[in-house]
Structures are given as C-alpha cells and as structure tokens.
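Lecture 7 notes: from sequence to structure.

We start with a single chain of 223 residues. Read the sequence below before looking at the structure.
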Amino acid sequence: MAATASSYRSPFLPSSLNLHHHHHHHHHQPLQLVTRAISTTNKGSTRTKYRKRAIKCGREFSDFVGGDLVKLDLGKWLSDVEEHKAIAIYSPHEGGYEGRYLNRLRYQGYRFLDLSARGLGDPETTLTKIHPVCPAHIGKQPIARWYFPPEVDYRLSLLPPDAKGLVVWVLEAKVLSKAELQFLALLPTLRPKVRVIAECGNWRKFVWTPLKDIAGLAANEAT
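Now the structure, written as tokens:
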C-alpha cells in the first residue's frame, strides 16, 4: 500500500515551521519537525535549506494507569488548602478529577456549600449579608421581593459540632470579575472556619494556585 503524507500547520508556530506526519501501513514514523532556513549569497541570490528533527512525545506514569488513580499530590493539596485557605483550581475538560480532591477534604471533616458563579450576584452580599431575591413573575404575577439570610453565615450556624469547617466550592468562577475574586480570596479572613475553592478554568491536568495570586492581591501586598 502506498504511503500517504499529511501536513499540519499550527497557528502558534511561525510560518517557517511545518509539521509533517508520515503514515505507513505496518508502522508509524515519528513526528518530524521541518525547519526552513533562507540565506542570501554574495551574488544576491537566495538559498533555502531544510532540516528535519524527530519529535518524541513524552509519556507519564498517569498515561498508563489513569490520572484519576494517581494521588501522590493529595498531601500537598491538603496543606495548601490549610495554608492559603482560598484556592483557584484548573481541572481537565473531561471532568471527574476534582472529585478526588473534594473527597479528601470531606474525609478531613469539612462540609460543602456548592455555588455557581453564574447568577450568584454580588458575592459579598449573597454570602455575608441579608439579600433580596426577586422570583420570576412570568409577566402575569406581581413583582415580589423575598429576603434570604447570608448563605455562608446560615450554613455555618448549621454545622455539626464535629465539623472542621465549611468549604465554599464555586463553579465556573472564570466569569467573575477581579474584584469578586478578591472578595472570595479574603472571605476566609472574614470567616475563619471557611475555605474557598474556585474553579477558574481548565488545564490538561488538575492544578491549583492560591486564589489571591490570580486575583491580584499578592501584587498589592508586595507593593
């Protein structure tokens, strides 16, 4: 069977770089990086040289056993949550990995308050103050306004005596403004028994960083 060749051009690579991947019937050739170099001779003519280099795709231990089964960083996860108290996490798009880290906090005795950043309103008002909520009137009912207790303070009052604290887990926190993220980063300071976990985006593997770093509080403290 005749070999077929296909080329791939990435928008993140310079126009002088092309990736060629050759497919064969019985075996696969490694991915090759073709570099084009253009030089000018003394007579003014141009000369083009092509160089090929093989690209090897690195593999990790988690590629063979499943990343959700590797829990070597759970100890650091617990220590970072206790140290920074507000964490921004980035999980893979396929989901499921964050459940391992959530369960580890549950084993430590934490209770959870799950919230979605979409429709949350002002986090400070919703979480720490009595706030109004207008139910949908569907155009036929009078516009009403109901008042609800602070979400965090209400949940803290319901914690059992053996609970270690309350984890406010914020979904889709990437839609929040920097000022709203700054309040979430400061919330454990206002309520010492509260920990904040904010889902701020996605990445190829489960990673996290202190929430104050992406909210701009670390830069303000340095100045």
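The helical segments are 62-65, 74-84, 98-107, 123-128, 151-157, 178-190, 211-215, 217-222. Keep this in mind for problem set 3.
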